[in-house]
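User: Please fill in residues for this 261-position structure.
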């Protein structure tokens, strides 16, 4: 065997050895990830974010060795979702939806994408993701259930929004009513003030009237009395004139008698 052939053989053996070592490390990390993931699923009454976090770390190490492995990427996205990181998990599943080529894999990705979106209460996008999964696997019971649940949650949210709107309308009505009541009360108060002013004016008027009544009043003579008084004066004057005429006549007679030509 030539020296060149020996060198090539040594390189190939080294590559195989290196590949074997990396493969062993990859499988080791994957086994660790799977183990942590399974442990996190044991107690369904609580969310063990610490254990699922360890699973995430293990899957990332496996992906450092084999970055394009679909299954490890899928497991990584699941471990992120299990840590209640819906937004980050949804981003990972959206990437996987573009990479997946097998129908079954693509359906699983859309199903989990729907779960990640539903956890964020993004009802319309989650419904769309479930529908995409069902177009591939129409009879999947879990996806059907999740789709129905997402639609129910969306309907309840809409009802709550409508109820809140009605409450806001009622609040506005109450506010308008209070404002109107305040205006009416202000108007009543104004009218009361006017009535008080009127009463005060009437009271002052009555007081002035009483004062006027208390003051000496000029005697007034009726028309009939005035005519009687006038008639009496005329009679007196007439009698006086007659007396004067008689006196003058008597004087004239006396003069005539006394002066005799």
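Assistant: Residues filled in for all 261 positions:
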């Amino acid at each position: 065997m030539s020296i060149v052939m020996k060198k090539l053989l040594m390189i190939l053996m080294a590559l195989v050895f290196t590949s074997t070592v990396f493969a062993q490390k990859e499988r080791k990390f994957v086994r660790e990830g799977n183990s942590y993931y399974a442990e996190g699923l044991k107690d369904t009454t609580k969310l063990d974010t610490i254990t699922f976090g360890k699973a995430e770390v293990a899957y990332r190490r496996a992906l450092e060795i084999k970055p394009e492995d679909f299954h490890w990427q899928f497991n990584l996205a699941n471990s992120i979702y299990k840590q209640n990181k819906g937004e980050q998990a949804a981003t990972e599943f959206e990437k996987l939806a573009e990479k997946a080529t097998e129908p079954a894999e693509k359906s699983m990705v859309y199903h989990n994408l729907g779960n990640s979106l539903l956890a964020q209460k993004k009802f319309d996008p989650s419904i769309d993701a479930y529908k995409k999964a069902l177009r591939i696997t129409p009879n999947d019971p879990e996806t059907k259930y999740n789709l129905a649940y997402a639609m129910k949650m969306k309907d309840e949210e809409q009802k709550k929004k409508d109820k809140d709107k009605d409450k806001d309308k009622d609040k506005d009505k109450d506010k308008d009513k209070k404002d109107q009541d305040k205006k009416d009360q202000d108007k009543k108060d104004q009218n009361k003030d006017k009535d008080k002013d009127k009463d005060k004016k009437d009271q002052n008027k009555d007081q002035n009237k009483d004062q006027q009544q208390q003051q000496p009043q000029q005697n007034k003579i009726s028309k009939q009395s005035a005519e009687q008084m006038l008639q009496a004066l005329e009679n007196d004057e007439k009698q006086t004139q007659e007396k004067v005429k008689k006196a003058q006549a008597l004087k004239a007679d006396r003069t005539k008698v006394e002066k005799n030509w």
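For context: The helical segments are 3-42, 49-65, 70-81, 86-99, 103-119, 123-136, 141-214, 223-258.
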